[in-house]
Design goal:
With 294 residues, the protein is an alpha+beta fold. It is 40% helix and 14% strand.
Amino acid sequence: MSSEIITITDDCIGCGSCSDVCPRYIFDIVNKKAVTNQNLFRCHDCGHCVAVCPEDAIIQHRMIENSIDDDFPKKGKTISYEQVLETIRQRRSIRCFSKKKVTKQQIEQLIVLGRFAPTGHNDRSVCYTIINDRKELEILIDTMIELFKKLKKQMSSSFWTFLAFLAGKKKFFDKAKKSLYRLESHIEHWERGIDHVLHYSSTVFLIHTHKDTSSPKEDCNIAAQNIALGAPTLGLGATFIGYVQKSWENSTEIKELLNLPEDHYLYAVLAVGYSKNHYRRLVPRPEPSVTYSS
């Protein structure tokens, strides 16, 4: 059966795998052959049907640009649980980067890691803005420090506390006050020439997308975690920088400085670079709380 989106060749053996894995339920098995049904228009190009077919009988025209072997290469050997665990445990949040520059090739390799992260409804709308210049980042830090000073002044003011109470945001304001010492530390250190905001990184990934996608926050942060996990394979390290994301939320100046598309929201920020320090041991973590419902 042929369509503008999908062709099912005569090699189909009617195993039903495509029907099993399709998230949009576009396949039926009729007379021991797969056929597309009235849901075909819902196909969102996830590629599961092509990837699972044992006979290479499905051609997804919107995804196959060269050949099935080029665009859907054969799956390699699955790595072990121990290898995955080791990779996850080796990830560290780098808080002191060296001056060695990240190359454009390395940046592109990291973006590939984010590219293959899952997205809600296969929206594939995650975007990356890369700042790869230390001078530009120092301008960003200067702007953030001025914002921190303003916030510090507001949180020390009884007037702003009263306004927060009237606006129903007293709990949020009180919580922010508990973290005031962090802002004070960033201000103090930056004025002494010490970067505790971006940790001397010369490369920052701003990860953003349309606000109206299915799961924008999750999509961006999963992509960011892919990048953070893969960075050590290139000799690099990374750390999430929540202060940049929160500053973007609360400052028109920083929005103008970062210049993201108007209809986009900044959901994750990664500082990337070469770690100045070498970690020689893995770190323990406490057991999580686990409840089985039955």
